[in-house]
Amino acid sequence: MPNSEKNILMNEMINKVAANKIQYHISKSKLPFEEKFKIIISLQAIDLEFRKNNPHKKVKTYFRVWQ
Amino acid sequence: MKKTLEQLNNLVELGVIEKYAIGGGIAHFYYIEPSVTYDLDIMIRIKSVSDNLAPLKKIYEWAGINNFEIKDEHIIIENIPVQFLLEYNPLIEEAVEKAAEVVIFDTKTVIMKPEYLMAIMLQTNRSKDRERLLLFLEQTNYDSSTFKEILIKFNLGENYAKFRKKYIDE
């Protein structure tokens, strides 16, 4: 297959992946707030774990995982 | 969260504040894909400020009576750090005035509308505001004519044009 055709196929594939990604994030934005809230709490737990012993990341006094 | 929202409604019922609206990250994530946030920003209107040097005095008194912990500028209400902010400019005033009544966790509450949140992001213009504004444009069904009216009214048209040129039209 010539390189020009390969490039076209590659670009098509990248565009398809990008479009799928955008759709995935849009679908997350449409979740009910109660579901989003669970995600926020999970992300807080992960974020706080990453901040532990990491001198480049501050942990402010009010940072906590919401229950 | 439900208990926190009930406490906010209680503040209105008690007359400590006249009106409130959820703003900041939690309001953003009501409309767009959620990410990390650690506090709940509440924009408030107070009927009359008895102490100009400490306009939030009554809220802190209420927090004290209820044994809510205070951490820096946050009051921890039912395990959620809440930051109360007075309406600090005309755009915020209108955003609070026209905020949407919604029900989450079976509790009535008030959240700023997307068009106002987008205008506020343009006004504050931090890196995370610009990032989230792009997500609003991509993920929400905002009313573009209302958004344009707000931009004109609060002189944000040029800010939006620059934003579009840099991040969208390029």
Global shape of chain B: globular
CATH third-level topology of the largest domain in chain B? Beta Polymerase, domain 2
Shape of chain A: elongated
Q: Structural class of the helices, strands and pairings of chain B?
A: alpha+beta
For the report, how would you describe the main beta sheet of chain A? none
Q: Cα-atom Rg of chain A, whole angstroms? A: 20 Å
Mean pLDDT of chain A: 90
Q: Roughly how much helix do the residues of chain A carry, as a percent range?
A: 55-70%
SSE layout and pairings?
The complex is a heterodimer of chains A (67) and B (170).
Chain A: H1 3-29, H2 33-51
Chain B: H1 2-13, E1 19-23, H2 24-31, E2 40-45, H3 57-65, E3 70-71, E4 74-77, E5 80-86, H4 90-97, E6 100-104, E7 107-111, H5 114-124, H6 127-139, H7 144-153, H8 157-169
Parallel strand pairs in B: 2-5
Antiparallel strand pairs in B: 1-2, 3-4, 4-5, 6-7
Attribute tags:
heterodimer, A: 67 residues, mainly alpha, 2 helices, B: 170 residues, alpha+beta, five-stranded mixed beta sheet, two-stranded antiparallel sheet, 8 helices, 7 strands, 49% helix
Overall description:
The complex is a heterodimer of chains A (67) and B (170). Helices cover 69% and strands 0% of the residues of chain A. Chain A is mainly α. The radius of gyration of chain A is 20 Å and the shape is elongated. Chain B is α+β, with helices and mostly antiparallel strands and 170 residues long. Chain B has two domains: 2-112, Beta Polymerase, domain 2, CATH 3.30.460; 116-167, no CATH class. Helices cover 49% and strands 20% of the residues of chain B. Chain B has eight helices and seven strands. Chain B has helices at residues 2-13, 24-31, 57-65, 90-97, 114-124, 127-139, 144-153, 157-169; strands at residues 19-23, 40-45, 70-71, 74-77, 80-86, 100-104, 107-111. In chain B, strands 1-2-5-4-3 form a five-stranded mixed sheet. A two-stranded antiparallel ribbon of chain B has the order 6-7. In chain B, helix 5 (114-124) packs across helix 7 (144-153). The longest helix of chain B is centred in the last third of the chain and has 13 residues, at 127-139. The N and C termini of chain B lie far apart (41 Å). The relative contact order of chain B is 0.15.
